[in-house]
Structure prediction request, 234 residues.
Amino acid sequence: MTTDFTRRRFMEAAGAAIVTGAATATTSTQAAAGSRGKTIRIVGISCSPRKGKTTAASLRVCLEAAQKVDTRIDVELIELAGMKIDGSLAAGLPLEPGQKDDFPRLVPKLSDPRVAGIIIGTPVYFGNMTSLCKAFLDRFIAFRKNNFALSNKVAGVLAVGGARNGGQEVTIQSVQAALFCHEVMLVGGKPKAHQGATLWNAYNDDITKDEFGIATARQLGVRVAEAALKITAA
Prediction:
């Protein structure tokens, strides 16, 4: 029991140190950007194990819509496909010898003060998020232990299912439940993407043919952008 407790505290401290270091490193960059007119960034995270497929394509639509809201908005898409992210490390377990961990290199991107919005996209696997998405969210304990480093960032969720009513909204709510623990400001889309963006992969990975789903992706992107601008201006 003592060993487990020590490991947990060590991992929490290590996670907090990573986040703190990342935030410090971006301070000078943020100041320089401020002198040229404040810009904000919205980051899309694709949690599909399939790189460049429908979830990533849906997020691109979402981010493009967000960027069109205002010239001050910058966007970035990050795909987790191929990355090694072990959710068990959030419980304080140490890295095994030779084990690769890609999560630390994502920390600076998400903790950057310029990031005002985060959009998480995941396929629907049996009515829920992918295991990759869950592991990614479990590792968010690093942000929580560092004075809620994601607090007040705007967040939206996108889900791609194999059927029109294939569990997209349930999956979105599952991701949202995890994000609530980090004091983010959750939003849906407008006017009809109430929970978030819901897309249907019914056309052999050509998600652009799902006109309704693509519309919800745009609506989510616009809403995240508008909310992010309001919060950063407050």
In short: The first helix runs from residue 2 to 25. The CA atoms of residues 64 and 221 lie 8 Å apart. The chain is about 45% helix and 15% strand.
